[in-house]
Structure formats: structure tokens, C-alpha cells
Amino acid sequence: MSGVRMSYRDACREALREALQADARVFLMGEDVGRYGGTYAVSKGLLAEFGPQRVRDTPLSELGFVGAGVGAALGGMRPIVEIMTVNFSLLALDPIVNAAAMLRHMSGGQFSVPLVIRIATGAGRQVAAQHSNSFDAWYAHVPGLRVLAPATVEDARGMLRLALADPDPVVIFEHAQLYNREEELPEALDVDIHRARVRRTGTDMCLVGYGGSLPKALQAAQELQAQGLSCEVVDLRVLRPLDDQTVMASVRKCRRVVVVDEGWRSGSLAAEVVARIAEQAFFDLDAPPARVCCAEVPIPYARHLERAALPQVADIVTTAQTLMGRRT
Amino acid sequence: MIEFKLPSLGADMDEGTLLEWRVKPGDSVKRGQVLAVVDTSKAAVDVEVWNDGQVGALRVQPGEKIPVGAVLATLLEPGETAAPSVIAPRLAAVPSTSRHAVSPSARRRALELGIDPEAASGSGVQGSVTRADIETLARARPAPASDHLQAMRQAIAAAMSRSKREIPHYYLSETIPMDAATAWLQRHNAALPITERILPAVLQIKAVALALQRFPELNGFYRDGGFVPAVTVHAGVAISLRGGGLVAPALHDVAAKPLELLMQELADLVKRARAGSLRSSEMSDPSITITNLGEGGAESVFGVIYPPQVALVGFGSMGVRPWVQRGVPRAIPLVTATLAGDHRVSDGHRGALFLAELRDLLQRPDALAHSGPDSSTDTEGSLPWAANAKH
């Protein structure tokens, strides 16, 4: 699989295939993951390859099949539960938060829930408000969960295996806009599920993004470079627990920071990151930390309005320029 | 309403920079209290107020450069009530409008570099000062310490040039036997801990002050084309600073004070001058300057008068040298006292009599130790030694 150009979708599929091959306790479960091949065609072909015991279509009940996944994990299996989109995951909040995230604590360490939940997230496809939410920050709020946001093909390929190896529940957010992205997959994977990553080095401005916002931040950095502004781009990757060290190191170097987040501004993950920057790197700042977030509206259906509501490259560029003051 | 103005803290001063306020609006203040610290080119000076009152409005913010005579603050006289509609809004407005936005990073860098961040021009967001602005400023000006030294050099240059341009100096010198004084000091100091021992310089300063009582034309100021004698002797004591340059702040009312007190005050004055925390009255009050080269100095010093003063008394280093007394040569401690006088105000003849008086006073150290302002009228020792006129 290494050394080739690959789509994010294919990387997710290869990761699933590898997991199903490697461990008989692993199975994939969710709506339309089998016969339909997954709403985003991630599990296409896996039913034929592994059979209905390992790739299971479920009824249309998130509460039911996520709960079943928690039970299977408690019973010694290594379930991968796919929730079609984060919008529907609200129906499964109880098994995720009250059961999966808390059982180790509630049982005094006697039970662990080695459950992996894959969730497609994000907006930008004109599927209207109820199918366009970003609730990443809600899950990142919950102790007991590890929350991952692979934003590169490499992370999409490598994070699943590490998530399955974690004895506690892991939520993986796959931004729907990323599935078609193609990138070179390195010969040897360099993936972990603990640290943020510097995706581009720079000196004047730190751009923090994750998931679907990372490509936008990288694009903005490239445009700003053309204007003589050297941007560093930090990919959070792990939304819980946050890797403060990598973020602060970059902020201390650049002294200015823009956090890009597709979630609504109030109570967003960007809010948490900015708060931590204020707490830990205040005396290194040369400008107030800035955020580029989703407008606080239900995501509009109309194309131009949806574009206007979501963080765009131009917004990041403008915000970064503003933070530079007279310089630009 | 009293206006608290920036006083001239020396002839060479025409502006100062407010460093900090020691009071805030509403504080009651007493005459002599320090209200503000102002940086002259020579030192950070505590500026005192000359009236009792209550602080009304602070008109100047720290960091602002203001000319001598500018109103720093307004005070309400005792009994006077504030007109809140006028003063209160003004006070409320000042901090918000004058606050200079400095980024946290810039502020920290400024601290490291010893730079006033408010002095930098801001290139950052909303005109704020950034780390880069601080570093630009740091590169643009020399290190602050040498900057201050340079300013002091310029101040000394201005004052001394003015002195030599305007004041027709005459110079006299007189060798003074110090055997009696030295013996007296040895006896007096023998029983005292080191910190309380009296230095020869204190005896000399006291002797100058007592001698001046009979020569008022040497103690005072030349202002607006005429001489204004000073009421008491505030001796400006020349103190060289460790970094270079010198100041000559006042020992107040020297004639009336016992030696022990003068010694304490001199030690305190030297310490504070070197720490850069002198009071405004000490900077502006001296009515004559006394310079003492001390041990290791030259044999005599012919000083340049510090305008608007009209005289400077110098003492060279004291040393054991041959001296003829009643036809017998002896080796005794001698010091050469000199007078630089302003010929517009006094003449060499009077100057010579002054030096003779000074010499005689130093032969009677016990009298110096116990004399108040009036005991110096005794002129028993007026021997006809001619003062050695240089000009």
C-alpha cells in the first residue's frame, strides 16, 4: 500500500481491510456499510471479501447499533461502528457518553470498552442544515473518549489500527469533504494518536486547523507566503486529549495565531484552543488570538449561503493579514 | 486650586520625563511629600510638593516629556472642594485614551531590553506595539545606560559652557594645616563604630558653611542681572557617579546642623545620588558647591561655578607635607582649599578673607563640632596669611 498515490476514501478502506484481516475479533457494523458499500463508499467490497458476520448492515437505529457495539466491546470483541454522519450520532449520545466513555470509571476499572466509532462529519456538499453539522467539539468535551480527526491520507490509513489497539473508546471523525482528496502515501507510515503535527513550518503566523479545515489552512498559508508572510500550519489531529505542547511551541515561535474551525464559534474547539493559548502562551503573543469559525446559523442549503457560512481560505488570509497590522 | 508644576532641578534642566506618580487623585498630601519621580538628564529625582492639599487631576502620564514649569497636576487647597463635573470625567477619560496597546510579547521583550515599550511606534494590529517594533527601537537607539550617560554628559556640557561663557571666574587657593582637625577626628572617631565615624570632608563642609555667614556674597544666586543672597547655606556636594558624570545635590542648612547629623545626611545623600533617587529640593536648592577630591585626588582643584550659584569651594586631597610653624619646619597633614568666585558678585579680596576664615575655623575642630550658626563670629585666628591669588 505504501509509496502510492491514494484517496482518503481508499485509505480508510485499506485500513478497515487490514484491521479485519489482522484480528478475528474486529467487525464493521453500521447503516448501509455492507450491501451498499457505505454511504461514502468507504466499505465498498468488504462485504464480499469478509462476509456478513464481519461486515454487518444494521437497522436504522443509532441508539440500537451503537449500544450493541458497546456490548460487543464489553464482551471481548473489537467492533468498528460506523455512524453515517455526525448529525445522526446525537441519537447515540447515550451509549457513547453514558456507557462507552464512563464504564471504566463506573466499574472501578473492571470493564473497558475497546470500541471504535467512525463518524463522517462536516458541511460543504449542499445537503442542508440537518446533514451538515460539526459536533466534533461536543465529543472532545467528554472525558473517557479519545477523539481523532484524520485530515491526511496517511492519518486516515494509519489511525484506525492504533484506535483499535486502544483499550478505551475512540471516536474517529472523517470529514466528508476529504474522501476524494488524493495524496502520496509515504513508504513507511508515521502515525500516532497522541500528538498534533506541524504540517508546514513558518515563522510569522501560526494557523491551527484540523479535519476539513486543514486543507483550507494549508491553502491560505500558501497564498500568504506569496504575500511574504511565512505561516506555520498545525494540524490538531487529536481533538481529545489536546496536544498543548505542539500548539504552544508554534504559537511561541510565531507569536500570532489563527484557529480555523468548522464548528460554531461559541463553545467551539477553537474556543478551547484559544483559551489554552491565552493561559499558556499569553506573554508570547504579539496580537490577540483570532478564530475563523462557522457562522452561528444552521448551515444554509443555498450554495452561496453555505459558502458564506463556512470558513473559507479567503477568510483565513484576511484574518491573518489583520493580525499582522501595518506590516502587510 | 494649586498647580503643581515641574520645577527646575538645576540650571541645566529645561525638561524632564515623568517616570511615575507616587500619588493618585484624591490623595491628601503634605508639604514636602514626594508626588512624582521625574527623570532629568542627570538622575531620577523625587519631586516634592510645597503645599498641603488634595490631589485633583494628574495632567501628565508616566513616560511623557514635559518642559520645566509645565503643570504636572492640580491640587485642591485644604477646604476647597472638587468640581466633580469638570475633574471626574477628565480623569476617567485619561487612562482609556492614553493607553498604548503593547502586545504581551512586546512588553516582555521590552523588559528584557530595558526599553520603555510606550516609546515604540506600533505597527501591529490596531496600531499596537509588537515584538518587532521593540527590537527595531532597540536597534535604533544605543543601550539605555549609555544613552543616559550621554545625556548627562550633554547636561554637564551645557551647564559648564554656560558657566564659562557668563561667569567671570576668579580663583584663590590657600593651604590649610589639618593637624588639629586630624587629631580631633582621631580622638572623636576612636570610640565609634565605622559607620558613625566622621570624615574630614564633613568638617570641611561645616567650616565652609560657618565661614560663609560672614561672606554672604559667596552664597546665593546670580539671577536676572543681579545677585540674590541665599538665606541659609545649602551646600551642593559634588558626588561622582559610578557610571560616570556627577551630581551636586544639597546638604540642607549645613551651618545649623551638628557634625554627626551632617555625616549621616552626607552618607545618605551619596547613597541616594548613586542609586538615582534624589529629591527635587536637593537638586534645585544648593546655594554653593563644595567639591572634595578626597584621598588619591589631586593636590588642589579649581572648580567651575555651577550657575546660577556664584562660588565653588574646592578641597584637594589631604596629605602630609612640610609646613613651617613659628620658624620650625614640620611634617603635618595639609589640604589646599580653593575658591572659584563670580567676579560680578564678589572680589578677590573678600574671597581671600573667606579662605582665611575657613582656614581658621579648621584649626578649631572642637568649636566646629559644637558651634551653631552664631559661634563663628569669633575671628581670633585672622593671621595675615595672604591668599594665593591665581587670577
Molecular structure report:
The complex is a heterodimer of chains A (328) and B (391). In chain A, 37% of the residues lie in helices and 20% in strands. With 328 residues, chain A is an alpha/beta fold. Chain A folds into two domains: 5-184, Rossmann fold (3-Layer(aba) Sandwich); 197-327, Rossmann fold, CATH 3.40.50.920. In chain A, strands 3-2-4-5-7-6-12 form a seven-stranded mixed sheet, with helices on both faces. Chain A has a five-stranded mixed sheet with strand order 9-11-10-13-14, sandwiched between helices. In chain A, helix 3 packs parallel to helix 5 and helix 9 crosses helix 13 (313-323). The longest helix of chain A has 15 residues, at 8-22. With 391 residues, chain B is an alpha+beta fold. Chain B has two domains: 2-98, Beta Barrel (OB fold (Dihydrolipoamide Acetyltransferase, E2P)); 168-389, Chloramphenicol Acetyltransferase. Chain B contains ten helices and 21 strands. In chain B, the strands form five sheets. In chain B, strands 9, 12, 15, 17, 18, 19, 20 and 21 form an eight-stranded mixed sheet that branches. In chain B, strand 19 (319-325) and strand 20 (328-342) form a beta hairpin. In chain B, helix 2 packs parallel to helix 3 (131-140) and helix 6 packs across helix 9. The longest helix of chain B has 23 residues, at 144-166. Chain A binds chain B through residues 255, 282-288, 322-327, and chain B through 103-108, 122-128, 130-132.
Largest interface: A-B, 14 and 16 residues
Determine and state the CATH class of the largest domain in chain A.
Answer: Alpha Beta
- Rg of chain B is 25 Å
Query: What's the number of structural domains of chain A?
Result: 2
Strand order of the largest sheet of chain A: 3-2-4-5-7-6-12
| Rg over alpha carbons of chain A | 20 Å
Low-confidence stretches of chain A: none
CATH superfamily of the largest domain in chain B: Chloramphenicol acetyltransferase-like domain
The secondary structure category of chain B is alpha+beta
Record field, number of beta strands of chain B:
21
Secondary-structure element string of chain A: EHEHEHEHHHEHEHEEEEHEEHEHEHH
- The CATH superfamily of the largest domain in chain A is known as Thiamin diphosphate (ThDP)-binding fold, Pyr/PP domains
**CATH class descriptor name of the largest domain in chain B:** Alpha Beta
Give helix % range of chain A.
Answer: 25-40%
